[in-house]
Specification:
single chain, about 280 residues, alpha+beta, D-Maltodextrin-Binding Protein, domain 2, 2 domains, two-stranded parallel sheet
């Protein structure tokens, strides 16, 4: 009897301890949620729902799940985590190009975007520091005389680019002699119109080149693409919150883990912001 009583006492103590621990965890979660002021929630989710643009045109950032047909990837995970912290439902709108995501924010259709930091976009978007850094590279025909990144910027060279992409905007500012040919798919333009080069994000360009023996990727990058989270200009409190959110997501390993889960091991997590 004494043994049974002792055992019962241990079980009761364990139950009470577990209940207390669970209550503390719930309390901490509630405190974390309540730490986000209503003003911030109102700026980032003015409709009561967090409306997020997801660019499926960049496979480093988002992909379509073959089993469910739903978007997945680092941007999707960041969007859901932000919604959880704000305590609001998340609505994802998918686009096949960064330019379309940008236009959706300008039109007021979305509250959050994931875009490369670019001066043209910065006039409309309050960006965080980058969370991922990727590279812009060139692809050319296998027997092309273009051997280096510098070789591409010469008269007579036509470069296929995705219209309004980060590298389109960058090359529009920096090229002196080559000509950009813009469309829904710079690679398709390169192939179909027999252009001298195609520009794009390294990962999909390299993946394409591996399946086509008639092309090669030029060593080196023509730009560093700094991918960031953003909201519309004028939402100052919300923008400051997003900045801290992204820094926490990088420091905690959230971004790195999300990239691994979406099979993007070559993507580089951006360093901590210095400001």
């Amino acid at each position: 009897m004494r043994t049974m009583a002792a055992a019962t006492a241990v079980l009761v103590v364990a139950h009470v301890a577990a209940f207390a621990q669970n209550s503390a965890a719930q309390s901490q979660g509630a405190n974390a949620m309540s730490a986000v002021s209503p003003d911030i929630v109102k700026e980032l989710a003015p409709t009561g729902r967090l409306r997020v643009a997801i660019n499926l045109g960049n496979i480093v950032l988002a992909q379509t799940d073959a089993a469910t047909g739903q978007p997945k990837g680092v941007t999707v995970e960041l969007a859901h985590e932000l919604g959880r912290r704000l305590g609001v439902p998340v609505d994802l709108s998918t686009y096949d190009a960064a330019g379309k995501s940008f236009e959706s924010l300008k039109a007021g259709a979305n509250d959050i975007v994931f875009l490369a930091i670019e001066p043209v976009r910065a006039a409309e978007v309050a960006f965080t520091a980058p969370y991922v850094i990727i590279e812009g590279v060139y692809m050319v025909p296998k027997d092309s005389g273009l051997k280096s990144v510098a070789d591409v910027d010469r008269a007579g060279v036509r470069i296929g680019v995705n219209k309004a992409s980060a590298y389109d905007l960058f090359l529009s500012r920096t090229l002196k002699h080559a000509t950009l040919v813009r469309g829904e798919s710079g690679v398709d333009l390169f192939v179909n119109d027999k252009l001298e080069a195609a520009a794009g994000v390294k990962q999909p360009i390299v993946a394409y080149a591996k399946t086509n023996p008639n092309v090669r990727v030029i060593d080196g990058r023509f730009m560093e693409i700094r991918q960031a989270m953003g909201t519309a200009k004028g939402r100052d409190k919300g923008a400051r919150y997003l900045h801290g959110f992204i820094e926490e997501m990088k420091a905690s390993g959230f971004v790195a883990d999300a990239l691994k889960r979406s099979h993007q091991p070559d993507a580089e997590v951006a360093p901590a912001a210095t400001d």
